[in-house]
Every structure is written in C-alpha cells, then in structure tokens.
Amino acid sequence: MSEMPSAPPAETGTERLDITPIARTELLKLRGSQSNFLRIWVEQGGCSGMIYQAVIDDTSSPFDVSVFDDGELRVVTDQQSRGFVDGMRIDYSDDLVEAGFRFINPKASKSCGCGQSFQQ
Description:
- By secondary structure, this protein is mainly beta.
- It has helices at about 20-30, 80-85, and strands at about 10, 15-20, 35-45, 50-55, 65-70, 75, 90-95, 100-105, 110, 115-120.
C-alpha cells in the first residue's frame, strides 16, 4: 500500500498527533454522533511491553488531554499516556490480511513481530 499524505497535525499544548486521510475518514464513520470522540491510552501488555488501546467514547473526564481536534474529529488521552501519543501517526489499512487501524510510534525503540506492542 502506498503511503498516503497525512493531514496537518493538530497541536494542543505540546502534543502532536498525525492522522492520515483514510484513517480520519474511517474514524468519522465509527464516531457516529458528533459528540463522540476517540479515546487512546497505553497499557502494559503485548510481546514488547506496551500496547495502544482505543475506543469511541462520549463521556469526557476532567483528566482528559486533547491531542487532536480539527473541529470534526477529536482525540483525547490521559496524562500517563500523553507522552506515548505525542508524535504518533494513526493510519488505516484495508489489506485483506491485516485490515484495521495502525498506531505508528516513531519514538518506539522496539516493537514486536506482529506490530501490536512496543517499547519506548
């Protein structure tokens, strides 16, 4: 699959998050209601030690940190995960074998063979 150009990153504070056009389109489809947003966090797990988790959410928390907001699509994380989200790129692939969203962390020092977990 050829690399698609990404939308300009939205910056909030010091975080930067890139979302490719195809990933943005798919996220907007999943989002449903305009009040819903994407919540991303990092937890321990996977072969390399850490794994990204994501869910479409509709309930904000006072601990949320907005890392992307272009007026249509909003992405939030928590304080502990914000350093792992900074600089990350969200892409989407419709490959037959590995279709789905991809969280690409350029700061990762190691990732597992399946590409699901990382170390930073």
